Amino acid sequence: NEERTATLNSRVMGWVEKLGVDKTGETVARGQPLLEIYSPALYSAQQDFLIVSRRHGSDPSDDALLVSARKRLELWGISSSQIEALAKSGEPSYTLTLTAPLGGTVIEKPVVDAQMVQPGMPLFRIADLSTVWVMADLYESELPFVETGQEAEITAPAYPGRTWKGRVDFVYP
Description:
The chain has 173 residues and is of the alpha+beta class. The chain is 22% helix and 26% strand. The chain has three helices and ten strands, in the order E-E-E-E-H-H-H-E-E-E-E-E-E. It has helices at residues 40-55, 64-75, 80-89, and strands at residues 5-9, 14-19, 27-28, 33-38, 95-99, 104-108, 116-117, 122-127, 151-154, 164-167. Helix 1 packs antiparallel against helix 2. The longest helix has 16 residues, at 40-55.
């Protein structure tokens, strides 16, 4: 189901330090750590945030530099909770932990330990397989017999004796 998939891409240049999930086909929960990325740029951005926040400890909310430093971290995929933990600890982290955006099954994992990653590079593709779409090819002469909302049964040679029931949701033009 295309509506229940997510692709996790790298937002920074860096290196995969540790894979939390290392096999295609593994089941993951939403928020589960997938991998840690080491990025000098992220480390530097965390240091900038900490320097600015220490300098303006009494009321930093109106400080444009702090807002900018925080926004830079957010744009690189650091969550609010990770930023709060950074502010509380006062120590930058050498790695950024990326988590699963939804629960499901890892259907693509093109990264390995120690691999260099670039911005925009896909790291994981996850799908919730609790519902799936079946796409069927029909002969043009069969099209008048298929309409949206119609019940359908699917069988597969790999599962003899099993039948799945569904409903026609869409007919491509």
